Amino acid sequence: MMDQSLALLAFDAAPVGIVLSEDRVIRACNARFADLFGYERRDIIGQSFRMFYPSGSDFDRVRDIGLEPLKQAATYSDERIMRHENGKPIWFRFRAHTLTPETPLARVVMSFAPLAHAEAAQSLTPRERDVISGLSRGLTSKEIARELNLSPRSIEDVRARLLRKFEVRNASALLARLSHLG
User: Fold this and answer.
1) Does pTM top 0.70 for this prediction?
2) 105 and 157 housed in the same domain
3) Which residue has the higher pLDDT, 27 or 60?
4) For position 60, which CATH number holds?
5) Is 4 among the domain residues?
6) Which runs of E-coded beta strand occur in 23-159?
7) Which residues, at least 6 apart from 108, have a Cβ–Cβ distance to it below 8 Å?
């Protein structure tokens, strides 16, 4: 059996941010997680994840997105923009594994790996972030429009603007470009 001090060292030295959450409240995190968001660990233990989102409405919009996959397969993954302590946005590859599938958020282990520099994400408008978030979750323009209570044409306009802005030909290339900016 592995020495517990070695397990704690591996947890703390992991190259990605790792956090244990209970009902959306941070119970434990590694040093990398705290560093990614610009906080001291002691300042985020016991806090809600709401503090890491650009706005309360962003938190409300994305907080339940992965519930069904967590219930069905105990895992969920997406890409999302979150907020550094200094207010700058950070683009992450987010992964979650619930330890309690019957109540998925009761106890969840999550990892956060940065995908792009904050400057790249910062140049996005809130609507562009919404559309990219939907695209990264595999949604169509119609599904994104329904989620945001907008017309599909509005979403198509934002998509076209993003393709021009990042000089790519399609949504896959857009997501690849954003994930490799850093």
Assistant:
1) no
2) no
3) 27
4) 3.30.450.20
5) no
6) 25-29, 75-83, 89-98, 108-116
7) 20, 21, 22, 70, 96, 97, 98, 99
Q: Where among 118, 133, 159 does a domain terminate? A: 118
Together in a domain, 25 and 106: yes
Residue holding tokens 């890491």?
52
Among 91, 52, 13, which Cα is nearest to 43's?
52
Q: What is the mean pLDDT of the chain?
A: 87
Distance, first Cα to last Cα, the chain: 38
Residue partners of 82: CB distance under 8 A and separation at least 6: 37, 52, 53, 54, 89, 90, 92, 112
Q: Dump pLDDT digits (tens) for 66-90.
A: 889 999 999 998 878 788 999 887 8
The whole domain housing 176 covers 124-182
How confident is the model at residue 119, as a pLDDT?
Answer: 53
